[in-house]
Model the fold of this input.
Amino acid sequence: MHTPPRQDYVSINFAGQRSGSYNNSKQWRRQSCWRKWKQLSRLQRSLILFILVLLFICGIATYPTVTEHLSGLTEGEQHTDSNSVLRPVVPHVLPEPLKQARPPLPEPTSKKLSNRRGPPVLQNRLQKKGNASDTVVDDKAAETKKEGEDNGVISWRGAVIDTDQATEGTKDEQNSEDSPANQKGKPSKESEANWPEAVQQSFRHAWKGYKDFAWGHDELRPLSKSYSEWFGLGLTLIDALDTMWILGLKEEFEEAKAWVATELTFNKNVDVNLFESTIRILGGLLSTYALTGDSLFLDKAKDIGSRLMPAFNTPSKIPYSDVNIGKGTAHPPRWTSDSTVAEVTSIQLEFRELSRLTQEPQYQAAVAEVMKQVHKLDGKLDGLVPMFINTNNGQFTHQGIYTLGARADSYYEYLLKQWIQGGKKEDQLLEDYLQAIEGVKRNLLQKSSPNGLTFVGELSHGQFSPKMDHLVCFLPGTLALGAHNGLPNDHMDLAKQLMETCYQMYVQMETGLSPEIVHFNMHEGSTRDIEVKLADRHNLLRPETVESLFYLYRFTKDQKYRDWGYEILQNFNKYTKVSSGGYTSINNVRDPDYPSPRDKMESFFLGETLKYLYLLFSDDPNLISLDQYVFNTEAHPLPIWPSTV
Ligand code: DMJ
Done:
């Protein structure tokens, strides 16, 4: 006998029970819904109403958290900063008033010879001490600012409280109403000889903050006078080693070297991101070895390099994003088995160099295998790659989206740079690079309205978006480097046009500093070329524009590139410098009165931004000659391999 199943649940059947022809008129739909509703039992109706009310209450309760979270995701570095994984929004904080004197003048320049990631738990683990006092510091700072404003003692200029702290130019330049320095940092030609020194001074100021409040930790939090950990490996210190060497800051370099010799250990149970630790730590150690010849740095490079190798043990040999350098285990992010294309294709310069130095082929073999596979993959558009690749099957995922920004950017950079590093013999790398640049021209290049700025937008399933990340501003420099190495002249023309656009991304903002992302107007009749969405107004002290200025100046000797770089340095000093030491990323480049400091100095500010500025201003073209060195994507110069033929 058939027993009807027990119904422990309430079933609601919305399937049509009426015969007759389909009628989709509004009235029919309204009547039909009402009829369905009335067909329900009282219990069913009460249950539905109860659920709806519950959902409504939950929605109201969670709305602020959700919007805050979403804005955090948008604001977070999208790159795998590059970065990227998505970081929590840092609460707005105010600096404390300036009490100390102007930093000491630097010693003369020595020409001895540059939406984020990381396990969230780790990021915060070592902040406890700082966190406890953060609120106090912030509150105090806020109070002090108010008092200061009231009695006129404090001159509030964004993160910098006192114009005396601005390091560049003479006092006269800064104070005169018509002085170029007051027109968004326009430089005075007379002081040009001092510009390298101004960068040294900025570096010392940043270093002071790191040394006083974050020594041996990953990143300085200059406003709360504390630090944050990402990998717990002294990231800023390692990223800054070769910058100190290049800037001739010997004392600082020796102190840092002593820390590396006595304190730095990679034998730690810690998850690190393969790409970030390769470009910052392995790259930083290898370049410091190249510059100094000190075997300490090579030994440390071997140590971290070998500890990163488990990342390549995947079914496809496309590496996982994360490695535990203590346990020797690797894994993808919790939510996916994909890796980011830029990440797996921007570790090659470093591992290849490690193999050359150690004569151990496994490093180079592992990263060459990745390039070989990516070269052959379906899913590219005229040489442009998607943003994700699966570590199980080795195929691109999330296909149809093409960008030169976050998650794809340094793939293109490393095609060219590997070709240069290896002595311009690896034709496949060059072919892929040339094809990709043609792909950019065909699919992503447009001009804005009304002033016709050339920009690189994005493509999503055939739909063009006029969005450009600041990260894309590496491209003018890379194109110029290619042209310098014999690639077509029109690459240099395009480099110059894009350089102008990247500069405009700074100069058109009220602080003279670029936002993280801009949108270009393309409609006739637009009144301005560049728009910035609210969530994109932050500046993380990124290097890409000054990096490109350095290349463009080296190859053209056009003075304007130096002038632009100097303006940018002045604006960093004006809006991001923190009086007690360090520089901070800011939330709003459009508000010079309240740029809203974020309380974080990224390691690449010392590793890249200040290094490229110094090299831009240096008159010595042999200071890291571009015919002898190739910079990795974190500005660490690695030797171009001597020809063996
Ligand atoms: C750096 O870590 C590297 O330059 C990377 O390629 C991109 N993101 C940051 C700087 O913006």
Observations:
- Residues 42-75 form the longest helix (34 residues).
